[in-house]
Amino acid sequence: MHGTxxxxxxxxxxxxxxxxxxxxxxxxxxxxxxxxxLFKQHFHNRQFLFLGYGLRDWNLRVILRDVxxxxxxxxxxxAIQSKPTELERKLWEHRNVNIYDVEIDEFxxxxxxxxxxxxxxxxTPVQTP
Length: 129
Description:
Elements: H1 19-30, H2 37-43, E1 49-51, H3 58-68, E2 77-80, H4 86-94, E3 97-100, H5 104-115
């Protein structure tokens, strides 16, 4: 939250702000410019693969909220993130994103191995005497 609190006025003596309140605030502040409408339309029916992004980044969370807020279909997406916190797991889950706890380099190596599997050796011919 940005700003000041004046304790001299009773009406401002206490208040509660949730994480969603702050994300809503950031989203309103951005006036829907976090994601241009052209991209938003394109992303609306797409699945995503997030590589190395953590949801501790408020800017990413504002973008995701803008992209995912009007989605009715709840398309499944994926995130590759090393050592996600329990909070990050819950935040990804809330956005219908499966998270995989793996280092990016290991993930890329696994992709390469699947794309270019080692050649299957030719069978050794049976020798007859």
